[in-house]
Design a protein that fits this description.
The chain is built from 9 helices and 6 strands, in the order E-H-H-H-H-H-E-H-E-H-E-H-E-H-E. The chain is α/β, with parallel strands linked by helices. The chain folds into 2 domains: 132 residues, 3-Layer(aba) Sandwich (Rossmann fold), CATH 3.40.50; 66 residues. A 6-stranded parallel β-sheet has the order 3-2-1-4-5-6. Helix 1 packs across helix 4, helix 4 runs parallel beside helix 6 and helix 8 packs parallel to helix 9. The two termini are 14 Å apart.
Length: 210
């Protein structure tokens, strides 16, 4: 790794965790309960948003009677079991994170998700304590349409943006992390495959897996 790099920031869902299936199922069940199919632009629209912002967007966009809090509660019910019991890290992620940590690289998570989803996975996989910073959907940062969450994570890691590498699997995240002044590695995930060619062109590097 470049000697100027002091910190590595990972997105969670779809980047280090094989978890995008959970939200595909949550979305399908949520809209099916309302006699709708998942709108074609829905996943991309909310992929960068915090949990609460996504609920507000969903309520307003589809004129739903439920409050954002009720929508989040429904999502929680569907998703929590999967995260607590079934979601796994992608192949070789654990080994890579342990290697970086052993080399003295500071590690952080920058995700639009909430701790109740990603923390059980990190704890179950035995790598939670390897991370020094968590910037997530509860941090108050704007969505990943903006570089805020990456800048916050770098600050928590006591690193300058140019001293950080970000691993991301969504195009808006790749763009925003670049806007933050960080080096970016695009990580392939099937859920964001439609934008893969664009991500490869924008990112500094790309990987199909760890």
């Amino acid at each position: 790794m470049d000697g100027n790099i002091k910190a590595v920031i990972f997105d969670f869902d779809g980047t280090i965790a094989d978890s995008t299936y959970v939200w595909q199922k949550v979305d399908a069940d949520f809209f099916s309960a309302r006699n709708m199919s998942v709108p074609p632009d829905y996943v991309e629209a909310i992929s960068t948003m915090s949990f609460y912002s996504g609920a507000v967007y969903t309520k307003e966009k589809y004129s739903l009677p439920e409050s954002p809090e009720e929508i989040m509660a429904e999502w929680n019910t569907h998703a929590l079991y999967e995260y607590e019991h079934n979601v796994r890290l992608k192949p070789n992620v654990k080994e890579y994170i342990k290697k970086l940590h052993s080399e003295g690289i500071r590690l952080g998570i920058a995700t639009a998700s909430n701790p109740e989803f990603y923390m059980p996975v990190l704890e179950r996989e035995g790598i939670k304590d390897l991370f020094s910073a968590f910037a997530d959907g509860t941090s108050g940062a704007r969505s990943k349409d903006y570089p805020d969450i990456y800048i916050l994570c770098a600050r928590l890691l006591c690193a300058k943006p140019e001293e950080c590498i970000v691993y991301e699997d969504i195009i808006k995240g790749v763009i925003s992390a670049k806007d933050a002044g960080m080096k970016v590695v695009a990580v392939y995930d099937e859920a964001s495959g439609d934008n893969w060619e664009k991500m490869v062109k924008i990112a500094d590097e790309f990987i199909m897996g760890f």
